[in-house]
């Protein structure tokens, strides 16, 4: 028994195509015996690995959600060898609100794992994925982007674990197969969200996982969407789960890494953010990254924020208004084994 209070209208052991909902009990003033309907789909046929395709972990990250909705409609059970579990809007309240976090409890799903079966809705979702879905899986692909506050060079990402040569080789291989312009790794074995992310839960369950940062800025672009769609299709074909998919060969990916705090640039003071570099630029340590202008004292000289190391700009803040502690940029450097 997993202890989850969430039930599923989909039987993950049944062959064929199923669509339905994860029913999350939610008793509120307007609906005493109500439940939150989290959409789920499952395609199962023959023998083969099980893969979780997850998006909407953050509700304002749309590229992955569109990718998975289109793929659910396209694929047929007879194409599959193994099992694909789709959760395209994992934090459903956040997805419906178009927000990073849930409007119900303020929960950030990708900072809530392994969750709590008796917690708030976000923690209950995390617990269900951790305790019910991931134990079924061999692979988990969690599709993210920069959401409303960030924009990325379209990227795939994974984590490497010191000393785990076999697992690390699988992660690097999948990053190359995905074929995003950038495939970056974190030297933190649990990723930037420490031990509270879906990727961290996958690692604890022995599930091989990678994710994406496929664009962002609270919108969907044709370029970023194509990278996400073709990347997922390449993974399914490479793993033999859907062998007859037509997909363009990988154009190659630049492997990079994200290291410690010096890879990130943060706002020093609240104000208006003037970026001094573009996404994809190569920058040097001490190079000016941004100027922060002060609306209340416009005659004051702006505060100049500088890069703390050499690198390539992988991510940039979108909103012009910023407060101390906001991330303005993060860098990547070429990956060395």
Provide a descriptive summary of the structure in words.
It is a single chain. It contains 6 helices and 19 strands. It is globular. It folds into 2 domains: 7-258, 3-Layer(aba) Sandwich (Aminopeptidase), CATH 3.40.630.10; 263-334, OB fold (Dihydrolipoamide Acetyltransferase, E2P) (Beta Barrel). It is α+β, with helices and mostly antiparallel strands and 337 residues long.
* Main sheet record: 15 strands, mixed
Q: How much helicity do the residues have?
A: 10-25%
Whole-number tally of structural domains? 2
> Average pLDDT across residues?
95
Low-confidence stretches: none
Strand percentage: 25-35%
Number of helical segments with 4 or more residues: 6
Over all CA atoms, what is the radius of gyration? 20 Å
- End-to-end Cα distance, whole Å, is 41 Å
- CATH top level assignment of the largest domain: Alpha Beta
CATH architect. name of the largest domain:
3-Layer(aba) Sandwich
What is the β-strand count?
A: 19
Shape type: globular
Could you name the CATH homologous superfamily of the largest domain? Answer: Zn peptidases
Provide the succession of SSEs.
Answer: EEEEHEHHEEEHEHEHEEEEEEEEE
Q: What name does CATH use for the topology of the largest domain?
A: Aminopeptidase
Structural class: alpha+beta
